[in-house]
Amino acid sequence: MEFLRPATWDEALAAKAEYPTALPISGGTDVMVEMNFDVHRPSAILDLNRITELTEWSIDGDVVRLGASVPYSRIINELSGPLPGLALAAHTVGSPQIRNRGGVGGNLGAASPAGDSHPALLAAGRDVFVEVASVRGTRMIAIDDFYVGVKRNSMEQDELIRAVHIPVADGPQQFSKIGTRNAMVIAVCAFGFALHPKNGTVGTGIGSAAPTPRRAVEAEQYLQGVLAERGLWESGDLLGTEVIQKFGELVKAAASPIDDVRGTADYRRHALAVMARRTLTWTWNDYSKQIRSAA
Amino acid sequence: MRVTFTANGKPVEADDVWEGESLLYVLRERVGLPGSKNACEQGECGSCTVYLDGTPVCSCLVAAGQVQDREVRTVEGLAEENGELGLVQQAFIDAGAVQCGFCTPGLLVQTDALLETDAQPSDSDIREALSGNLCRCTGYEKIMDAVRLASARKCAKAASE
Predict the structure, then answer these.
(1) I want to staple B45 with a disulfide (CB 3.0 to 4.6 A). Which of A97, A167, A233, B39 is the partner?
(2) Which positions in chain A touch B43 (Cβ < 8 Å)?
(3) Do B133 and A95 count as a contact with CB atoms less than 8 A apart?
(4) Whole-number pLDDT of residue A152
(5) Cα(B6)–Cα(A75) distance, rounded to whole angstroms?
(6) Do the chains contact at B61 and A28, CB–CB below 8 Å?
(7) Superfamily assignment of B3-76 in CATH?
(8) A33–chain B nearest CA distance, Å
(9) Residue A193, helix vs strand vs coil
């Protein structure tokens, strides 16, 4: 096994081109578990810790460019304003020690359906992009095109994740996750939800209840229709039980979970409907308050 | 491969390190610092918690090669320079928070880190800060007592200085 320690991003891309099967490591919170238990023995490990720009974020206009290795603890402390949904999701990752090391780049690289970032990224909108690069150049992969199978993403072998581009929140966002305790749990299932009043859309993200993280497309379309038809974006009036209930049912229908050690498919469907109703209620209440206080 | 880094303020060097080896293994088996404990090897238990460049992390999840030229501080580094126990260590003894002792090194480092950022944490802050440290003797109430005691002593010490 080789241990590659590039000092710069260009060196990292060159190393990945030369050793396409090298396993990138940053926080190590997934990779090292596999190494310790001998689940996976890659031909080479590509350490990204020396590349400091991966741990930086910036805001350009209304988009956050989040470096792949910005640890969850810093997302919580520094970005809960512009990225509230992702910050809430980050707070449910592992433990303080894990959050000090792990970041969104690793979640995306592993592409596990249970990754905590994914529902928040999907909910943040269709204009979330994963910035990947190789010696051949840089490309932006839309979040909806990123997850292609169980623990598979649409990256090429010679590519590395540089950053994620996420719109600055223009409305309330929520994240909800089911587990046996508040810390150190892999999600039984999870749900991310965001209101995007500027363009009159809503965002959803389902975790741990399908082969990939996925969006509840029909639930989004239904809710967007109701909000537009009834002028609710402008009035901030109550949604009503029927709308909340229907939204929950559509989110439930969008999932295709399995029975496994963490929970049954039936339980996951049920829990998703509950989380969808709750997150919609929480965010809509926040939004209504904003409308009323602005009036 | 060879890995050189700083451990508790002193330069250390480890030879013949396997590329997939963890920092925890290097500390325990190669540089004579067995204070950090190896329990779960998957970041679940916190027994191997050390400071890496001032941030508490699970040393079982840091690849040895990643600590090249960096600073590590282990539970051994919490003692005073004259060899006496540090404030957090003494509080754990005085509160009776040590049973089998296996989780203690990780709890000490994580508690030290908590009190460095917040000398007077609330109970819920303490529980959240220690949520990644498991005690299989289930002695959590005494551990809570120990952190409160360490907090009180640290605040008293700061006030007297």
Answers:
(1) B39
(2) 29, 32-33, 94-95, 97-98
(3) yes
(4) 97
(5) 28
(6) yes
(7) Beta-grasp domain (3.10.20.30)
(8) 5
(9) strand
Q: A28 vs B63: CB contact, 8 Å cut-off?
A: yes
User: The CATH number of B87-160 is which of 1.10.468.10, 1.20.58.100, 1.10.150.120, 3.20.10.10?
Assistant: 1.10.150.120
pLDDT tens sequence across B2-41: 999 999 999 999 999 999 999 999 999 999 999 999 999 9
Q: Are B63 and A25 within 8 A, CB to CB?
A: yes
Q: What six digits make up the tokens of A199? A: 């363009």
Which amino acid type is present at position A26? Answer: S
When scoring B21, B42, B61, B131 by the number of chain A Cβ atoms within 10 A, the one with the most, hence best to mutate, is: B61
ipTM of the complex: 0.97
Give the mean pLDDT of A241-263. Answer: 97
Entry pTM: 0.97
Would you state the pLDDT for residue A262? 93
Question: Under CATH, domain A173-294 is a member of which superfamily?
Answer: CO dehydrogenase flavoprotein, C-terminal domain (3.30.390.50)
Domain spans of chain B? Answer: 3-76, 87-160
Contacts of B65 in chain A (CB under 8 A): 3, 5, 45, 47
Q: Do A97 and B57 touch (CB under 8 A)?
A: yes
Where do the H-state alpha helices sit in chain A? Answer: 9-18, 31-36, 72-78, 84-91, 96-99, 104-110, 117-123, 143-146, 217-229, 232-235, 241-254, 265-294
Calpha distance B151→B132 (Å, rounded)? 20
